[in-house]
Every structure is written in structure tokens, then in C-alpha cells.
Specification:
The chain has 1062 residues and is mainly alpha-helical. Among the domains are: 267-410, Rossmann fold (3-Layer(aba) Sandwich), CATH 3.40.50; 423-506; 521-598, Orthogonal Bundle (Arc Repressor Mutant, subunit A), CATH 1.10.10.10; 768-843, Tetratricopeptide repeat domain (Serine Threonine Protein Phosphatase 5, Tetratricopeptide repeat, Alpha Horseshoe); 850-922, Serine Threonine Protein Phosphatase 5, Tetratricopeptide repeat (Alpha Horseshoe); 932-1062, no CATH class. The protein has a 5-stranded parallel beta sheet, sandwiched between helices. The longest helix has 25 residues, at 146-170.
């Protein structure tokens, strides 16, 4: 069946397509036809019925043709595939109509009500009634068929409203419907069910006099208007009212607190909590202060089918006050309170009163803020639940009651936006939605946009998504911008004050919220909590013991104290992405605890020592069979490592800071890759580390230099590379597996290719297996860059064998991708796809990095080369979107450049041009070391794009830009393949201009530089297809050029026309 469109008739007519876009339907008769078909959607409406419905007693002379004309016009609105013709009439197929949906939901709600499922009935009926946006069929009231349909739908609507009100009364929400019922009985004075419901609601609320008055008003109206007596239903309601005794009328005890703000961001939790309340008799909402436990409990209780009693415990100080608070909420005292009509006296034991009053009642009791009296609440709950089989209890607390039968419902922070989320993405997170809702209360119209999304995200993330903290931050927008609030969150306890004056004192400031929980901790718990504040991310028990066990907190006691902190919602426990149990404090809690850390220096010393030992243990494991497990472990420890380095630098500890960084280097490169995050001051204090570098050991210094010089964002100068080479020759560095690779690459960067070859061959005899594998891979890449493709292929195959043996998935994936490119160049596209697919499987196993996205884009390029343009387009569009959403700028640019080539091949030159222009602008402010390789590639694709557009002058200019980029890049590291790519693009231009001889020379130059002509390229094959014997001879001769001769031909062969040349 076709995906349906939607027609809404319960209010102004609205037709929307499958993408929820509104479709305009012009002309009154056309709207009449659409509505008439919609009222019987998916059924055949006879031609006669349609004619009668549209024209009534005055049809046109040729009514059938007039109807056909209207149907034809209606089909042109986008309904062509949905209006079906039959011999007997027409049908609007695969269509959703709000009127039909309303009738279905209303009937379901009625069935639920008859089964006494009041809560479910109320929810379904509310959904049904929410479909009404105004009077039914308001746009077609003049249609002959409209009056009967409107009357029918109005009656159904009123009946559904009555059912919903009855369900609310059954749920104990009679006070909420009384005002509504008064209005309805005024509008419908002769509708007796409404009056009966009003009497019932007033009686249940204890307003007997008002209930009697409502009956009398209805009786008089019926007599005056119709001359009849009230119906049996209404008379029964009156009789029940007269027979009621005070004991049978429920108390007006403490009901749910009315809410002044909207409920935002907890819909999923609400669904889960409702399910628990329907199944279990004791549910405890546990979570840190400010998480919104009271609000969620209130909302859940408001939807419960049972009568609800809400008991505020926050203001109590003594355990003996807990039963009395519940008794007060129930209204127990000297009055009659149960169906046994027993009179209670003040001296009677309060708990006994509660047991007698609740023994046979199906009630829900909400005990709010139990943590400071948790033992007393636990005893009372256990006593009540044991004696009152129909009673249910919902408690809110910062720690569990810990009694048999308790079901815990942990409530954590709201879902957070991603750190680099766009405005649209941020607005989808629960934390941002709550912040925006509360912000609009003090600054109407406030929204998240491209200008403030960074600040909004920062506020929500730094405040951990805690509802109370977000509400306090939003309140600050009365006098500050959101940027100013974000900038001041380092002083959050001073900033976030001024909550509602009617809130509990501990909810009026952020500091008071945490202070309340801190006051409930034992001394050992405070000690551990304050020491845990040194950790920057969730940490293992081993780490916490290492950093926090000292003095009066023994190592053997840490686990038990930690468990207590978890129970009291001061610390969160969970399983990390590495599968290891981890513990963390929310940022707000951590900031509070850090301010109370009395032995800060000793704790930081232990923390730095633990991190250093951890990364030095992990470092060799990143090069073997356990690589994936240790990568995931270090993923989880990333922020702890960064924090330890910063602390060590703050203390001027060169040994610790450089040792940690050295051991972490390979992890950083594995995770960031070529296109990843550069190691900058935003990550580590590199400038201050440079000042203490002379005091660091040579081995760690070498790896520091590799990260900051060879792995940085700026092109290194010769002096920096010379320092790297000097460090490579130190005795300590020689023993490091990475040193051999570093030396070879550094020599190549200075164009010391002979020296690089010597270092390469020496490294192949290195005692470490991984070093020999990675050197083989590096040698293959160097050979390819120098245009020795045969040698590159041999060494890639060797490195693949070696990486498989030692279990290094990273090296294996890199080598597989590189060999795939070589196969593709030789025209073996199927073989290239096979290798890329294996590399992708390995990369996915490794975990988060930039590499899978790039490999998928390489796979897409092979599909393009094979001629499957649709598959290439699908994959590249998807990967461009994913990488952009993840903030991977360089990856996105690389993927989009590939996508532009596919778009050109598909004939979509306009979209390709738009994307190329955007990409060129994107590269303007990038550093040269990243800009030049991408600009070269962009120039190649642009040159072919202009050629396809017939703009050969512009194509030569793009080729000139690419040549200039390769020239600049050659000063950093020679890349034969890039130069060869430029030559091939120039050949495409020359062939389009009719100069096939020059095109042949250029393809020959490409082969001379790269070591082989890329015969897997559709563009090259297109040019080769134009050659005759003469051009083939020129091509063969050009292949014999030296690399320097070929490069000179390329540079001199770009005819850049003067500005303004078309």
C-alpha cells in the first residue's frame, strides 16, 4: 500500500503529504469533494452520492462530467495515486483522516471505561479529543452533505468528552473537572449525563450542597423546556447523594500539588514509571537533588487510576512525625474516616488509625522527600503495605528505603545535546527543551539558534542536565545573556541563586541543593567524595582506591563507602563503554566536593601516579591482539589522562607530564587518525610543556615532538624536524617501537630519501615485530609517494601479513585500504572493493574513529568506478551527513569532493557546482598542512567539473590551483599520486579542447610520476578511448620520462588565461 496522506476535517480543512507538507486545495467545490471522499476514506463512494453531496437538488446539466472534472483537478493536488476510479464511484485510498481516527479512539476509550480501566480510558480519550482543532467541516458548511455529518461528529465529540470526564472522576480527579462540568451543563442544560457527572464530582469532593443545587437546576430546566421528569440515571445520582453519610464521603485531604510550569523532557521515564505503578506496590524514585523526582512523581500520580494522597516530608525533623504527616494528609482525626464508620480519638495510636483507615481502600500514597527520615519512612511503608493489600506507595528519596518488595526507579539527569550539536540537534534534547521552556518564562521568544547554540549546549552539559540547575540558569536570563551565563558557570554556586521564593529553601539555590545532601553524609563518605573530585570522568574502583585511599580511609573500606555514596545518590554507578564498572559524580556535585577537599595536593599526587602507571601499562597492549579492549579502556580514561597531564604541568613536574603524554601518544594517533582532532592548547598545555621539555627524558620528548611537530596542524620547519631526528638517535628512544617509524618519516619530510631508505632497511631488522610491520607499511607508503608502485604493492602485502600475525587491527585496516587503492589503479575494482570491505569490518571493530567514514567513502568511489553511480551517490550523501553532524570537518570535505565527482558523472552539474563552491569556501581559513592536499584534490575535481560545463578556461585555472597546491605540499612530503592526479585532470581538459596529443603526453607524465597509469578511472578511460595509434605512441613515449621531466611538463603545460577570459 502507498504511504498515506492525511486529511484533517475536525477544524479547518488541512491536506498534508507523506512528508507532512501542507497541500493547498483551492475552490469551494473541490474542498467539498475532498471532504466527502475523506469521510468515507478507503471505501467506494457511489457517483450518485457524490453528486447529491456536492450539488443537492440542483446538479449541473452533465453532472457526471462535472464530477469527473473535479476529480481530475483534485488528483493534480498530489492525490493522483490515491484517488481510485471504479465503475460504481471513487475512493480516496491509503489516506488517514482525523475524523475516522477520532471515532476509533473514542470507541476504544469507551470500551476501556466500561472495563473500569479509568486511567487508560482517560489517556485514550484525551488523545481522541485533541484531534479537534475547531468546528468540524468548517470549510464546507454549505455542502448539502455537511449538516448531517457535522451533527453526527458533534454528538460523538460530546459523548467522548463525557466518557473522559467520567474516567477522570473514577481516577480521583473530580476537583479538576468541576469547573469544566459547570460550563458544559450551562451550554447543554438538557443533557442529563453531564448533570449526573457534575453531581457525582461535587459529591465526591464533599460539596453536597452544591450537588443538590445542580440537581434542582436540572430538574427545573427539564420541566420548563420539555415538561418531563429527570431520567432514571439522574434520579439515581440524586438518590445516592441523599443517602450518603459523612463517613462515605471521601476526605478532602492533601491532594497533588498544582503545577505552575509545563512538564518537559521526561516522557520516556513517565511511561516506565506508570508501568511500574501498575505492577508493583512500592516504587521509590531515587536520584540526586534537583533531578526532578518530586515533579515526576506528581505527574505520574496525576495519571494513576487510584485515589492519590500526597505527603510532604521535607519539613519534618523527627521520625515520629512521619505517620502523623500521612494521617494529616488523609484527614484523620475525630471525624469518621472509613466505611466501618468507626470514630477515632486523638489518643489512639496514629499507625493504628492509618491501618484501619487504609485497610480496604485502593489508594496511592506519595511520600515525598524521604532521605532525611529514610528509616522511619521504611518502617511505616513496610507496616502499611503488609496490612493494606490494595495500597500502593510511591516514594521519592535520594537513597532507597531498602525493604522487601521495593522497586527502585533511578532518575538521572535529562538527555544532553552533543558537544558540537547544531541548533536543530540541540533543540531535540530533553535538557535543552526544558531550558528553553523555562527561559521563555523570563524572556519571551527565546530560542536556540546558530548564534547561541554553543552557549546553550555548554550550559546544559556543564549543569549535567539537572532540571533544577537548568531552571535556575534559565531564570538568570532575566538579566544576562545565555553567553554570560555559560561564561560564569565556573562559579556556579554564586551564579545559580534566586529560585522561586515559594520553593523549599534547599531548592532556591544550587548550593543549597547539594549542601542538603552533603549534610546527610557520614565523615568517611565526605572524605571519599571530596577526594573523588580529582577525577575528570567516570572511574574504576581500582583507580578510586589508588587515588583516594589514605589516612583514615583504608583501601579495604573504599568499596563500602563508595557503595553508600551510590545509595545516597551522591555518586552514580554504571558500566562504562569498555564494559568495566565505573563511578562518577555529576559536575555540580564534583565542584561542591572539590571545594571541601582538605588534602588536595596529596590526593592529586596519588591521582597523577595512578594515571601514569595505567597508561604505561596500556601502551604496549595497543599493538597486539588485545588492542580493541585496551582502546576502549583508554577511551573511558581520556579525560582523566588529560587532567593528569594538566595537573602535572601545573606542578612543574616534567617527568610525570612527559611520561604520561608519551605513553598516551599512540592511543591519540589511533583514535584521531589523519583527519582527526589536532593536539592543541585546547586539549593539553603544550606551550607550558615546551618550557620544561629540556628536563624530560629523551624517549618521552621524542613522542611529544612527534605529536606536536609531525602530528600538529602547522607545517613543521626544518629545525623542528632536525630535533626529532636527533632524539631518534638517543639510546632511550631507540628502544621505543615508534622511534623507527618516526625517523623514516622525518627523513622523508626533509627530502633525505636516501637516508630514509637506509633507516627503513635498518628498521626492518628491529627486534620488535610490530615495529617491523609498521615500517613495512611506512615503506610502502613512501614508495607510492615516490612513484614506485610495484615496490609499494610488495611492501603493503608484507605489512598485511605481519599485522595479521600480531593482531594489530589498525595497521591491518590501513594496509588493506592502501593496497585496495593500488588494485583500483590497475583496474581491479572488484579486488579493491573486497579489500576495502575487509578494512571496514576491522575499523568498525576498533571503535570510534574517523577511519570507517573514510573507508566507506573509498568504497563508494569504487562503486563509481564500476559504474554503480546510484550506490556511490547513496553512500556518499549519507556519510557526508554523518560526518558533518559529528563535527568532522576534514572528513566531510574529503567525502564531499568524492561526491561531486559522482554528481558530475550522474549529470547533476548544478548540485555538483554548488557543493564545490561551498567546499572551496570551507578551506579558506584552514592551515596549509591540511589545506594543500585537499585543495589539490578539489582542484582536480573542479577542473573536470568545469570541463563538463564547457568552461575550459575555468578548468585550466582550477588545474593551475591544483598544481600550486602540490608545489606547496611538496615542501612538506612528496606525494606522487597527487601530482599524477593533476596531470590526469589536465589530460581531460586537453582532450575536451581537441588536443589529443597533449592529452596523451599528460597521461604518460602521470604514469611516469605515479609508477602506473590509473586505468580504473572512468575519466582516464574516456580520454584513452579517444586515442588512435598516433596518440598511443605518444603515450608510450611519455611514460619513459623521468619524474622531474614529467613534473616540469605538468607545471609548464597549464595555459592560465588572463583574468576575464571566458
Amino acid at each position: 500500500m502507498l504511504a498515506g496522506v492525511r486529511v484533517a476535517v475536525l477544524g479547518p480543512l488541512c491536506l498534508t503529504d507523506t512528508a507532512d507538507r501542507e497541500i493547498e486545495v483551492g475552490g469551494p467545490r473541490l474542498r467539498m469533494l475532498l471532504v466527502r471522499l475523506a469521510l468515507e476514506a478507503n471505501r467506494i463512494v457511489p457517483v450518485e452520492a457524490l453528486i447529491d453531496g456536492l450539488w443537492g437538488a440542483q446538479p449541473p446539466a452533465d453532472a457526471t462530467n462535472a464530477l469527473q472534472s473535479l476529480v481530475s483537478r483534485l488528483r493534480k493536488t498530489g492525490l493522483a495515486k490515491r484517488i481510485e476510479s471504479f465503475p460504481a464511484g471513487y475512493s480516496l485510498a491509503a489516506t488517514e483522516v482525523d475524523a475516522e481516527q477520532f471515532e476509533r479512539l473514542a470507541a476504544e476509550g469507551s470500551r476501556l471505561l466500561k472495563r473500569n480501566e479509568a486511567a487508560n480510558a482517560a489517556e485514550v480519550l484525551r488523545t481522541a479529543l485533541a484531534l479537534w482543532r475547531g468546528p468540524a467541516l468548517v470549510d464546507v458548511t454549505e455542502a448539502p452533505f455537511a449538516a448531517a455529518a457535522v451533527a453526527r461528529l458533534a454528538e460523538l465529540r460530546l459523548t467522548a468528552l463525557e466518557d473522559r470526564i467520567e474516567a477522570d472522576i473514577l481516577r480521583g480527579h473530580e476537583a479538576d473537572v468541576i469547573v469544566e462540568l459547570y460550563a458544559l451543563t450551562r451550554d447543554h442544560p438538557l443533557r442529563e449525563r453531564l448533570t449526573a457527572l457534575l453531581i457525582r464530582a461535587l459529591r465526591t469532593a464533599g460539596r453536597q450542597a452544591d450537588a443538590l443545587a445542580a440537581y434542582e437546576t436540572a430538574r427545573q430546566n427539564l420541566a420548563a423546556e420539555l415538561g418531563v421528569d429527570p431520567s432514571p440515571e439522574l434520579q439515581q445520582a440524586h438518590l445516592a447523594l441523599l443517602r450518603a453519610t459523612p463517613a462515605e464521603i471521601p476526605n478532602n485531604g492533601t491532594r497533588l500539588p498544582a503545577q505552575l510550569t509545563s512538564f518537559v523532557g521526561r516522557q520516556h521515564e513517565m511511561t516506565e514509571l506508570e508501568a511500574l505503578l501498575g505492577r508493583d506496590r512500592l516504587v521509590t524514585l531515587v536520584g540526586p537533588g534537583g533531578a526532578g523526582k518530586t515533579r515526576l512523581a506528581t505527574e505520574a500520580a496525576s495519571r494513576a487510576a487510584n485515589r492519590v494522597w500526597f505527603v510532604h516530608l521535607a519539613g519534618l525533623r523527627e521520625a515520629v512525625d512521619v505517620p502523623a504527616a500521612l494521617a494529616s494528609a488523609l484527614g484523620l482525626g475525630d471525624s469518621r474516616v472509613s466505611e466501618k464508620r468507626q470514630v477515632w480519638h486523638p489518643q489512639t495510636d496514629v499507625t493504628t488509625r492509618l491501618l484501619e483507615a487504609l485497610a480496604d481502600r485502593s489508594e496511592l500514597v506519595v511520600l515525598d522527600n524521604c532521605e532525611h527520615l529514610v528509616s522511619a519512612v521504611a518502617h511505616l511503608a513496610e507496616t502499611l503495605l503488609a496490612a493494606c493489600p490494595r495500597l500502593r506507595i510511591l516514594a521519592t528519596s535520594r537513597e532507597p528505603l531498602t525493604i522487601n518488595g521495593e522497586t527502585l526507579f533511578p532518575l538521572g539527569p535529562l538527555d544532553l545535546p552533543g558537544e558540537n550539536a547544531s541548533a536543530e540537534q540541540a533543540a531535540g534534547s530533553a535538557a535543552v527543551r526544558l531550558f528553553l521552556d523555562r527561559a521563555r518564562s523570563v524572556r519571551p521568544g527565546f530560542t536556540v539558534d546558530d548564534g547561541n547554540v554553543g552557549s546553550v549546549v555548554a550550559v546544559c552539559r556543564q549543569l549535567d542536565g539537572l532540571p533544577l540547575a537548568l531552571e535556575l540558569a534559565a531564570a538568570r536570563l532575566r538579566s544576562m545573556t545565555v553567553g554570560q551565563v555559560a561564561e560564569r558557570l565556573d562559579d556556579r554556586f554564586r551564579l545559580l541563586t534566586g529560585g522561586s521564593r515559594t520553593s523549599l529553601p534547599r531548592h532556591q539555590t544550587l548550593g543549597a541543593v547539594v549542601e542538603w545532601s552533603w549534610g546527610l553524609l557520614a565523615p568517611a563518605e565526605r572524605t571519599l567524595a571530596s577526594r573523588m573530585s580529582v577525577f575528570a570522568n567516570p572511574s574504576t574502583l581500582e583507580a578510586i582506591v589508588a587515588a583516594c585511599a589514605a589516612g583514615d580511609l583504608a583501601a579495604d573500606d573504599v568499596l563500602y563507602v563508595l557503595a553508600s555514596l551510590v545509595e545516597k545518590s551522591f555518586v552514580e554507578a554504571g558500566e562504562g563503554a569498555d564494559g568495566v564498572p565505573r563511578y562518577r559524580m555529576l559536575e555540580t556535585v564534583k565542584a561542591f566536593a572539590a571545594a571541601r577537599l582538605v588534602d588536595a595536593e596529596r590526593t592529586r599526587t596519588r591521582f597523577i601516579a595512578w594515571v601514569m602507571g595505567m597508561v604505561e601499562e596500556a601502551e604496549p597492549m595497543l599493538r597486539g591482539h588485545d588492542q580493541v579492549r585496551w582502546l576502549r579502556f583508554l577511551d573511558a580514561e581520556r579525560d582523566n589522562v588529560i587532567e593528569a597531564v594538566r595537573l602535572a604541568v601545573d606542578r612543574d613536574d616534567a617527568d610525570a607530564s612527559f611520561r604520561i603524554l608519551a605513553a598516551w601518544t599512540w592511543y591519540w594517533l589511533l583514535r584521531q587518525g589523519v583527519f582527526g582532532e589536532a593536539l592543541t592548547e585546547q586539549v593539553l598545555p603544550l606551550a607550558r610543556m615546551q618550557l620544561m621539555e629540556h628536563r624530560a627524558p629523551d624517549g618521552p620528548r621524542l613522542l611529544y615532538r612527534m605529536l606536536t611537530v609531525m602530528g600538529g596542524v602547522e607545517q613543521p620547519d626544518p629545525a623542528q624536524i632536525a630535533t626529532v631526528l636527533e632524539l631518534c638517535h638517543s639510546e632511550q628512544a631507540k628502544a621505543m617501537p615508534l622511534a623507527a617509524m618516526i625517523e623514516t618519516v622525518a627523513l622523508a619530510m626533509t627530502h633525505e630519501f636516501d637516508g630514509a631508505d637506509v633507516a627503513f632497511r635498518r628498521s626492518l631488522r628491529h627486534p620488535d615485530k610490530w615495529t617491523r610491520a609498521v615500517v613495512a607499511f611506512g615503506g610502502a607508503m613512501a614508495a607510492e609517494n615516490l612513484g614506485d608502485l610495484a615496490r609499494a604493492k610488495r611492501w603493503q602485502e608484507a605489512s598485511i601479513r605481519r599485522f595479521r600475525t600480531i593482531g594489530d587491527r589498525w595497521g591491518l585496516a590501513m594496509a588493506l585500504n592502501a593496497l585496495a587503492e593500488i588494485r583500483s589503479t590497475g583496474g581491479d575494482i572488484a579486488g579493491a572493493i573486497e579489500l576495502h570491505e575487509e578494512a571496514l569490518r576491522v575499523e568498525v571493530e576498533l571503535g570510534p574513529s574517523m577511519d570507517p567514514a573514510m573507508t566507506r567513502s573509498r568504497l563508494a568511489e569504487q562503486h563509481y568506478r564500476m559504474g554503480d553511480l546510484d550506490e556511490a551517490y547513496r553512500v556518499l550523501v549519507r556519510m557526508a551527513e554523518v560526518s558533518q553532524n559529528q563535527g568532522q570537518r576534514a572528513v566531510t570535505v574529503a567525502i564531499v569532493i568524492r561526491l561531486c565527482a559522482v554528481l558530475r558523472a550522474r549529470g547533476d552539474l548544478a548540485q555538483a557546482r554548488a557543493r564545490l563552491d561551498t567546499t572551496r569556501n570551507e578551506l579558506v581559513d584552514w592551515p596549509d598542512s591540511m589545506n594543500d592536499p585537499l585543495r589539490c584534490w578539489l582542484g582536480v575535481v573542479e577542473a573536470r567539473q568545469y570541463t563538463a560545463e564547457g568552461k575550459l578556461a575555468e578548468a585550466w585555472r582550477a588545474a593551475a590551483d591544483a598544481v600550486a597546491a602540490t608545489d606547496r605540499n611538496a615542501g612538506y612530503l612528496r606525494d606522487a599520486q597527487s601530482v599524477a592526479d593533476v596531470a590526469e585532470a589536465m589530460a581531460t581538459i586537453a582532450a575536451a579542447a581537441g588536443d589529443l596529443v597533449f592529452a596523451a603526453r599528460l597521461l604518460g607524465a602521470s604514469a611516469a610520476i605515479a609508477g602506473a597509469l590509473d586505468v580504473g578511472s572512468p575519466d582516464n578511460l574516456a580520454v584513452l578511448g579517444k586515442f588512435g595509434p598516433a596518440e598511443q605512441e605518444v603515450l608510450a613515449e611519455a611514460r619513459k620520462m623521468t619524474q622531474d621531466e614529467a613534473t616540469r611538463l605538468i607545471k609548464e603545460g597549464v595555459p592560465v588565461p588572463p583574468p576575464g577570459t571566458p
